[in-house]
Amino acid sequence: MNNIKLNGLDINGEEKEFSLKDFSGKRVILYFYPKDKTSGCTQEACDFRDNINRLTPYGTVIGVSPDSIKSHKSFKEKQGLNFVLLSDTEHKLAESFEVWKEKSMYGRKYMGIERSTFILDCDGKIEKEWRKVKVKGHVDEVIDYLSGAGNV
User: pTM, whole model, 2 decimals?
Assistant: First the structure.
C-alpha cells in the first residue's frame, strides 16, 4: 500500500503524484470519503479544514476519494481545503485498506468507498482505524485519540 502512486493535489492545489511512502517519518491522518461535493463528504472535509491547526501537530491530513483531479480541484477551491487530496479512480489505495465495498442504496447494489479514517504511524503502519464513520463529531474523535496518544 505504501508504494501505490496516485495523482493528487498538494495543500496549495498543485497537481502532483503521491505515494504514502512520501510521508514516511511523519504520522498520517488518512481519510477515505465517497464523493466530492456531496453533503456528508463536504461536511467531513470542512471539519478537517476547520480543525487543521489542531491536527497538524499530530500528522499530515490526506483525503482520498475515487473522484477525478478535475473534481478535486473544484471541490478544494470551493471549500478552501487546506490539505492533500488524492484521486483514487482505480480504487487501488481503497482496496489496499479494504474500504472499497459493496454498498446498497434504495435496493440498488454498487461498489463504493466505505467512509473510514486511519492513523498511520511514522513507519506507515496502521496505528488506529475508524470504519463506517459517521461524519458528525468524527474529527473531534480523531483529535481526542491523537491528543491522548501522547506522541506528538
Answer: 0.94
